[in-house]
């Protein structure tokens, strides 16, 4: 999805496929088990380019809504960053939102109260 130079080293932002999600250790993220087999939930990671070490994770849930407008809205949730670089969380959220819009969501939010 993207590559950014951080204060630590180069990192990649990318969407995990189902096989990669199933290989993730539940120790990395305690709620990962809840997301493994659900439809319309996508897991993104930030990993270092050299070591392939995961330094951040975030989820996108695409939900059909009829409240103000009929269509899908992207709900960004569970952003966890293990880094001192403040821009990583902003960049991860931006990458997730961009992916949601590309997939047909008319908007994104971090508020789970979307109906």
Automatic annotation (TrEMBL):
* Protein name in the entry: N-acetyltransferase domain-containing protein
Species annotation: viral metagenome
